[in-house]
Specification:
The chain is mainly beta. The protein contains 2 helices and 21 strands. β16 and β17 form a beta hairpin.
């Protein structure tokens, strides 16, 4: 009888561990927050409406515990809760109390398919789902502006450059300047491509456009962590620390070296053009921040969280020249001759 009880206790513990791992390992790939200024709710009300939105990327492959974004949302009534925190102009470095929550609902979703050459099997089975979530929030006039913050836990166990990634959360953050300074956040262009080849340089456009015509400056930054622990979707904290928590890198990894020693990462501050060259196979987290400047003054910022997968790719053969019958030209000294050379890429 004692043996049976022991086995039952062991089975219960195993079941609880399996359940906890599913709750925590949400297989987040990245995302970002943004907002659109709508206007005053009524003339003279001094209450201003914003559309708050989130781009959310998740792993929907066979190794993911969640098959769809809709499945994750079903655990929280179909919403992603974003906390709104007023900035106190008299105490700009103080922690921020929660004012309200903007509940974002899914309005669109799609799947990102890697653009692979014909016959290439690298990246097969890689599945990334993109969800666009939106909600509205009405905010009273505040001369300090507002902070937006979303948190979720946890990241993936397989991340190579973060310390204890399966117990590390993810945070999305954006800042709204005072409503009288009418502003909408920059809009990121394109989707982050999660597939990189080791020992090869990959170039991506991590740029954005600004609906207000503000100057945009791009930079690599440390990704945000969650304030609270737990698993899955977490309600916004009642108090947002002035210093929003950041993830911890594994030693030898950093913002400047997200792929570790020997790797390469570059971003053009004016355009957002990024280049990556990992040297070791694995999953790596980076963050790109865009800052808005109006008349030389910083008015807003938002940070995009990305998970990049570095894989071993087959050798890329050089294009082959197409040799025809040829032509004979007579050219006088000092004159110019232009002709076309045709090549074909056997891998495309």
């Amino acid at each position: 009888m004692r043996s049976i009880r022991t086995l039952l206790k062991l089975a219960t513990v195993i079941a609880l561990i399996a359940h906890t791992n599913k709750v925590q390992a949400t297989h987040l790939i990245g995302g970002n927050l943004g907002y659109t200024y709508v206007g005053e709710t009524a003339p003279g009300s001094q209450v201003y409406r914003y559309i708050v939105y989130m781009q959310f990327y998740m792993n929907c492959g066979d190794d993911s515990n969640w098959s769809t974004l809709q499945e994750i949302l079903s655990t929280n009534g179909g919403f992603m809760p974003v906390g709104v925190y007023p900035q106190n102009p008299g105490a700009p470095n103080a922690n921020k109390p929660l004012l309200t929550i903007a509940n974002l609902a899914l309005v669109d979703s799609s799947y990102i398919i890697p653009d692979l050459p014909s016959g290439c099997t690298v990246g097969e089975g890689l599945c990334t789902q993109l969800g666009l979530l939106q909600g509205t929030v009405d905010l009273p006039l505040n001369f300090g502006g507002y902070h937006l913050y979303f948190q979720m836990n946890a990241r993936n166990l397989s991340i190579s450059n973060l310390f204890n990634p399966n117990n590390t959360g993810i945070g999305y953050y954006a800042f709204i300047p005072p409503p009288l300074l009418v502003n909408s956040s920059p809009i990121w262009l394109g989707d982050p491509t999660p597939l990189l080849c080791i020992n090869d340089t990959s170039t991506f456009v991590n740029s954005a456009t600004d609906p207000d015509g503000d100057q945009l400056i791009f930079s690599f930054e440390t990704p945000y962590n969650s304030v609270d622990g737990g698993g899955g979707i977490i309600n916004p904290p009642n108090v947002l620390p002035n210093d929003v928590p950041l993830v911890n890198y594994v030693p030898t990894f950093s913002v400047a070296q997200p792929f570790g020693p020997g790797g390469y990462a570059f971003i053009n501050g004016a355009t957002g053009l990024t280049q990556y060259q990992p040297t070791v196979q694995g999953n790596y987290v980076v963050a790109v921040e865009v800052k808005e400047y109006r008349n030389g003054v910083l008015i807003g910022r938002t940070r995009r969280d990305l998970q990049l997968q570095a894989v071993v790719c087959p050798p890329n053969d050089a294009p082959e020249a197409i040799i025809g019958q040829g032509n004979v030209y007579s050219v006088q000294a000092g004159s110019q001759l232009c002709f076309d050379l045709d090549f074909q890429d056997p891998e495309r």
